[in-house]
């Protein structure tokens, strides 16, 4: 595996150890770096320390049980703290057009920061989803090498139902109108999970069976539905992110 001259930074909101470790390993694998070469900051358990953007090749924000559309008085103290910290970080990230990729919860965080409508109009069960690139998505370097339509894994209670005019829609689906978008040239967000392969989605189904994403009795059926679909393209988003902003990833890192 390759190591960028400057490392990438992973921001995690997960407090469930099994899911957090699996997410960390998956992002590292598909970026093409070792886990040790991908520092992780756990926003779900502690405040975000000052971040010197010049020390990093890029920043990735993963998903978890937070929802940007949760009523403010229903958010935990850790979520309120994390969202305030992320808002301050995104102020600088967007102002500098610094390489950033938010996945799942990350699309809600970036969307809220940029004035998108984030609501519960298109909830999506955990499992496979069909994603289609827009014309802009087909031309975007982050989606280079992906087919116009591909399968990915997702699962969310909220989504972006309307983007602000300055955002560029990159992907859509029947399950969620905005599956990916870009701000400026280098700030990205996806509703689907670019880090998830079959083992990863099965882990998420097991860990979050009692978090309100689906009826726990559906766990076995959801796992079977996930296994019935081949998901191999979304990981290239991470490969492309690493190749564009760090150093080229190893070819092994793109295998699912």
UniProtKB/TrEMBL annotation:
Keywords: Glutamine amidotransferase, Transferase
Keyword Transferase: yes
Molecular functions (GO terms): transferase activity
SUPFAM superfamilies: Class I glutamine amidotransferase-like
Glutamine amidotransferase domain segment(s): 56-197
CDD domains tied to this protein: GATase1_1
A GO term from the CC aspect: cytosol
Membrane-spanning parts: none
NCBIfam families per record: PRK07567.1
Name of this protein: Glutamine amidotransferase
């Amino acid at each position: 595996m390759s190591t960028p001259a400057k490392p990438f930074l992973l921001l995690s909101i997960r407090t469930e150890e099994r899911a957090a470790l699996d997410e960390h390993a998956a992002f590292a694998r598909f970026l093409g770096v070792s886990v040790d070469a991908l520092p992780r900051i756990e926003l779900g358990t502690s405040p975000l320390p000052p971040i010197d953007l010049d020390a990093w090749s890029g920043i990735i924000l993963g998903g978890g049980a937070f929802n940007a559309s949760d009523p403010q008085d229903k958010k935990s103290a850790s979520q309120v703290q994390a969202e305030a910290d992320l808002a301050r970080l995104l102020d600088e990230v967007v102002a500098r057009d610094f390489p950033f990729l938010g996945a799942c919860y990350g699309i809600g965080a970036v969307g809220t920061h940029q004035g998108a409508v984030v609501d519960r109009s298109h909830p999506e069960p955990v499992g496979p989803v069909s994603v289609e690139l827009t014309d802009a998505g087909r031309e975007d370097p982050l989606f280079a090498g992906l087919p116009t339509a591909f399968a990915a894994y997702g699962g969310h209670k909220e989504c972006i139902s309307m983007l602000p005019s300055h955002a560029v829609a990159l992907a859509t689906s029947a399950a969620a109108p905005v599956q990916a978008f870009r701000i400026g040239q280098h700030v990205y967000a996806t509703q689907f999970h670019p880090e998830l392969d079959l083992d990863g989605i099965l882990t998420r189904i097991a860990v979050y069976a009692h978090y309100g994403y689906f009826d726990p009795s559906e766990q076995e059926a959801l796992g079977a539905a996930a296994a019935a679909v081949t998901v191999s393209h979304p990981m290239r988003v991470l490969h492309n992110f690493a190749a564009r902003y760090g150093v080229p990833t190893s070819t092994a890192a793109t295998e699912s």
